[in-house]
Specification:
This is Glucosamine-6-phosphate isomerase. Keywords: Isomerase. InterPro entries: GlcN6P_deaminase-like, Glucosamine6P_isomerase_CS, NagB/RpiA_transferase-like. The chain has 273 residues and is of the alpha/beta class. It has a single domain (4-265), classed as Rossmann fold (3-Layer(aba) Sandwich), CATH 3.40.50. Helix content is 34%, strand content 16%. It is built from ten helices and ten strands. The protein has helices at 10-13, 27-48, 63-74, 105-114, 138-146, 173-177, 188-198, 215-219, 233-242, 266-269; strands spanning 21-24, 52-56, 81-85, 87-90, 128-129, 151-154, 182-185, 209-212, 223-228, 260-265. The strands form two sheets. Strands 1-10-9-6-2-3-5 form a seven-stranded parallel β-sheet, sandwiched between helices. Helix 2 packs across helix 3 (63-74). The radius of gyration is 18 Å and the shape is globular.
Length: 273
């Protein structure tokens, strides 16, 4: 079966998508835009004396250097900001990989974000939250106590996953959307693609398990902002924007969200000649 939307040119792609699409010049433009939205929301909530709650990815990550620079240059306090990270790789016995593991998302956030922000501005450690295989209900408790998530930032995997909410051909959309934070086995597609991007193709060294925030928590964020920038994102964006709502391609289940958009580059918008 041929999926016509995979072959839409830029004009066709932007004609009538089911998710609002924003085309930007290049990768830096996408990442800077994400960082600017993070900063603007924090400044807005700080001015109101309110907490800011983000769900944050490690992939895409290009927004973080811009974010760190803006926070430091503008002296923006993160003392009332909570970063709830989407996911983390696990060992074969389903424990967090060590922070010094090259794939550890906890290690990445420490090295790239938290230690780069001025100490007087950065949020306390207890406000840097990761899903924990030893306490699956923690994320939901934190979100409930804080009054919900302001913005969920993220990307889209090759099989349509958001965070590590891997595709399913057996679940109904309703069943899939009801899934909360959990431990799961990473799909073969995701392991293969991530090994190319993160381990130079060392597939045998890719973890088999992960913990992920649920699609339920993502779908209930007040805003969802997704970024796409890789060559294979050409088909992912087209599927997200025109495919049917199915658990086979999880991001499609977010098409009805009241405040979602998908930013991507001219490179992704245009198919090869």
């Amino acid at each position: 079966m041929r999926h016509e939307y995979y072959y839409y040119n830029k004009e066709e792609l932007l004609k009538n998508p089911k998710i609002p699409l924003i085309v930007m010049e290049d990768n830096p433009a996408v990442f800077r835009s994400m960082a600017e939205e993070m900063v603007e929301e924090i400044k807005r909530k700080n001015a109101l004396g309110e907490k800011t709650v983000f769900i944050c990815p490690v992939g895409p990550v290009g927004q973080y250097p811009y974010f760190v620079e803006m926070v430091n240059e503008q002296n923006i306090s993160l003392k009332d900001v909570w970063f709830i990270n989407m996911d983390e790789y696990l060992t074969d016995d389903k424990k967090w990989v060590p922070k010094d593991h090259p794939l550890s998302f906890r290690g990445f956030m420490d090295r790239t974000v938290y230690t780069k922000i001025k100490p007087e501005l950065v949020m306390p450690e207890e406000q840097r939250v990761f899903p924990d295989p030893e306490n699956l209900g923690h994320i939901e408790d934190v979100i409930q106590q804080l009054g919900g998530v302001d913005i969920c930032f993220g990307g889209i995997g090759i099989n349509g996953h958001v965070a590590f909410n891997e595709a399913s051909d057996t679940m109904s959309p309703e069943e899939f959307l009801a899934q909360h934070t959990r431990v799961l086995e990473i799909s073969r597609e995701t392991r293969a693609v991530n090994s190319i991007g993160d381990l130079n193709g060392a597939l045998d060294d890719m973890p088999h398990y992960c913990i992920t925030i649920g699609i339920y928590e993502i779908a209930h964020a007040r805003k969802i902002r997704l970024g796409c920038f890789r060559d294979w994102h050409r088909s992912v964006v087209r599927h997200a924007a025109y495919g049917e709502k199915t658990a086979h391609f999880p991001v499609s289940l977010l098409q009805d969200h009241p405040d979602i958009n998908l930013k991507f580059t001219e490179f992704v918008a245009n198919l090869p000649e």
